[in-house]
Amino acid sequence: MTYNIKEIASLAGVSKSTASRVISGNGYASPEARARVLEVVEQLQYKPNAVARAMVAKRTNNIGVIVFREQQPIVSHPLYGKLIDAILEAAEGLGYSVLLKTDREMSVRSADHMLERRVDGLILISRLRKNVVDHVKKYNLPYLMVNGSTDDPDVIHLVSNDEEGGAKAAAYLHGLGHRRFFVIAGPQEHRSHHLRLEGFKQGLQRLGVPASDLTVVLSPESNLEQGARLMAEHFETFIGGGYTVLFTTNDMLALGAMKVLLQRSVRVPEQAAVMGFDDIDFAAAYSPALTTVKVDTNRMGHDAVALLDRLIHQEEVLSKKNEFASEILIREST
Amino acid sequence: MTYNIKEIASLAGVSKSTASRVISGNGYASPEARARVLEVVEQLQYKPNAVARAMVAKRTNNIGVIVFREQQPIVSHPLYGKLIDAILEAAEGLGYSVLLKTDREMSVRSADHMLERRVDGLILISRLRKNVVDHVKKYNLPYLMVNGSTDDPDVIHLVSNDEEGGAKAAAYLHGLGHRRFFVIAGPQEHRSHHLRLEGFKQGLQRLGVPASDLTVVLSPESNLEQGARLMAEHFETFIGGGYTVLFTTNDMLALGAMKVLLQRSVRVPEQAAVMGFDDIDFAAAYSPALTTVKVDTNRMGHDAVALLDRLIHQEEVLSKKNEFASEILIREST
DNA sequence: CTGAAAGCGCTTACAG
DNA sequence: CTGAAAGCGCTTACAG
């Protein structure tokens, strides 16, 4: 059974107004009135209707999170899963509930759903079309973007410093003595994959590595399967070409590709060093454990919610672009 | 800017009632009125306020999903992540949005949040205390449990057939010629881990394997780290004891433990066969790929939402206990 | 300190 | 086919 405030009020012998004041904690009520109302609330296990509250407050205390991604895994993507865990935790801490949606059509529909549900703010995750942002902008709903890409100077976004991470990876591997580099890079329309590759290339160039000592293979998707497929496809080139490094623009690609190497009895890291990017849980769990560039998804998720909260409260927000430092994690594969 | 129906109505030159009828699609409206309203809606990009709608419909079209788990990973748990992906997809298909919450305190608070927000139904995931179910039961909110455990005959729940899976694993490994079995089992308060172990034991017993040829080590948590820690701790026993099989009650434990075996140069499967349970994405990606018992999380998630939808529509629901067959996936580690 | 009234943005009988 | 009215469950000035 579910009661409403009118019933609570009448059982407590007060008016709705008074009942509302004690339940919501706003406004005065005599100690006696307060006690009677609270007793009824307790006894009936009254749960105030948040929908009605939202109606008058013009605030739902819900935030919307949309993950744009064409293929599974989405929530079960090791990186996005961690990001969502962090977002849920942070949201809880600030009193928000989260409406979560995945959008495989990369359309404007999911944003419309959130708009209709009157979320207080919106977190847009991963690669999304420009028109989605343009659409959201028309409503004055606070929003921000995580791990996506945009050239729109208005959009507040959180990203990892992918270019720097790529360059660091190049420097680290070069420092180990490697001279011929093989790269499998994810979709270049995606900011992260693009910048990680660019950073890596530039890093190499700065170290004086000629372009002829670098081979880049582009992958249409950034998952385990494509990593494995491309490594298998280019196996002869890799082995015959004197390459001693496999760098990939994320861990899934690295792990997929490394499996092929191991299956074909290539010793990692003795014959070939393998390095990824992200630091998903399985990077450390693999054997050999994968050297990678860590993205601090936990902090990113927490900061995203904190920032959105500032936006919701109309507080000033310092900078549009929020970059998170990337850090090399040396493990067994290099 | 965001408009309300009154503004739409007045711009279209009709009453709120008429505007409402055409926008909601319920009730009559002349073609002319309809056209005028729709034009204004389109031009102003009007988004009806779902909060107000929910208020009168006494239905939010939101469902709540709570994952009960004391430790990270929660959403980023490979199994729960997949389950949530399936739930989101199925919910979307039936017109629901989902409010997602993780509960690490195993309390009743998260359920209360959902109750206050007036979700149409609730999906409770993983291990949860009896008092949570008892609490939810008091409100007449449709709910069901996925991958949890209960001895309450009223509770509609979806589980994998863990006992059968365990027995199948035993039979398969025994059939391969193995005679001494080492098991790392997750928390026995958790239904799945408990039944998987029971099924495995009983399977072995039926095959005439004496209890002395089975060693079981209990793990306080079911993650990679504990799998690795326990294997390292019992390594001497394992190697010195003539065991040729490592079976674990989930893939994370298996992968964590297998890494230790590989690091110490134990050849898998030649010297030791390793087998897990769940079929998370990384089971197939590991090298050697992990043989496991597959739980069809995708179907489980879809069925959970479909079932909840039936409950919400007060349709009859066939059986309280919905069991999903488990299936052995033979890969490289056995 | 308290209660009556108005209002949040919709929908739904009901009368015309 | 259409509009005025009432109501969903709250909160918030306002008068007393």
Automatic annotation (TrEMBL), chains A, B:
<feature type="domain" description="HTH lacI-type">
    <location>
        <begin position="1"/>
        <end position="57"/>
    </location>
</feature>
<keyword id="KW-0805">Transcription regulation</keyword>
<keyword id="KW-0678">Repressor</keyword>
<protein>
    <submittedName>
        <fullName>LacI family DNA-binding transcriptional regulator</fullName>
    </submittedName>
</protein>
<dbReference type="Pfam" id="PF13377">
    <property type="entry name" value="Peripla_BP_3"/>
</dbReference>
<dbReference type="GO" id="GO:0003677">
    <property type="term" value="F:DNA binding"/>
</dbReference>
<keyword id="KW-0804">Transcription</keyword>
<dbReference type="Pfam" id="PF00356">
    <property type="entry name" value="LacI"/>
</dbReference>
<dbReference type="InterPro" id="IPR000843">
    <property type="entry name" value="HTH_LacI"/>
</dbReference>
<keyword id="KW-0238">DNA-binding</keyword>
<dbReference type="InterPro" id="IPR046335">
    <property type="entry name" value="LacI/GalR-like_sensor"/>
</dbReference>
<dbReference type="InterPro" id="IPR028082">
    <property type="entry name" value="Peripla_BP_I"/>
</dbReference>
<dbReference type="InterPro" id="IPR010982">
    <property type="entry name" value="Lambda_DNA-bd_dom_sf"/>
</dbReference>
